[in-house]
Design a protein that fits this description.
Number of helices: 8
Strand content: under 5%
Helix content: over 70%
Structural class: mainly alpha
Number of strands: 0
Radius of gyration: 32 Å
Order of helices and strands: HHHHHHHH
Distance between the termini: 126 Å
Length: about 180
């Protein structure tokens, strides 16, 4: 009786997996394994199905992280952790997401300083950007902001700009009781 019930639960689990209902299908396969723990076919099917689902979720999470969709990536990594709490890639992915969020916050703060436009604010913005670039040299937003800040600093500190500002002031000359010759 247990064998027949396990066979039906196993088939139901496979059908659910085929229909794309991964969580429910894995639950059915786990139920089949618990009904007949000595059945190697059930254990192998459960193991391969779980590994396949984890690999698919991990690749989805990585793609979402590369595209900047951090909430989607976190959701996928959390799903992987529900299936396998000790999964190393999910743990590393979640740590990378935390770093990326911290970097985005620091970039936003540096951007606000950059918008103020004063030399002291520009230097403070550069100081906020430097650790980001050292941790992740391919962080596009940080590199872009760093280039803009450095460009603005060069323009403000160059001697030509100071002279140009000085020469823009109007000069007035008054001639009183002086012949123009």
């Amino acid at each position: 009786l247990v064998g027949c019930g396990g066979r039906q639960v196993f088939r139901d689990g496979n059908h659910l997996l085929a229909d794309g209902k991964v969580d429910q299908g894995l639950a059915k396969l786990e139920e089949a394994v618990s009904l007949d723990p000595k059945n190697a076919e059930y254990r192998i099917a459960l193991s391969t199905s779980r590994a396949s689902a984890i690999n698919k979720l991990t690749s989805t999470a990585e793609a979402a992280r590369r595209q900047g969709r951090l909430t989607d990536a976190e959701r996928a990594y959390r799903q992987v952790q529900t299936m396998d709490p000790e999964h190393a890639m999910a743990r590393q992915g979640l740590q990378a997401l935390a770093v990326e969020r911290r970097h985005r916050l620091q970039i936003a703060e540096a951007e606000a300083l950059f918008k103020k436009g004063k030399v002291a604010d520009l230097n403070a913005a550069l100081e906020k950007i430097r650790p980001i670039v050292s941790e992740n040299p391919s962080q596009k937003d940080a590199l872009n902001l760093k280039a803009r800040v450095e460009d603005s600093l060069v323009k403000q500190l160059s001697p030509e700009n100071k002279l140009a500002a000085t020469f823009k002031k109007p000069i007035s000359i008054e001639f009183r009781d002086a012949p123009l010759k």
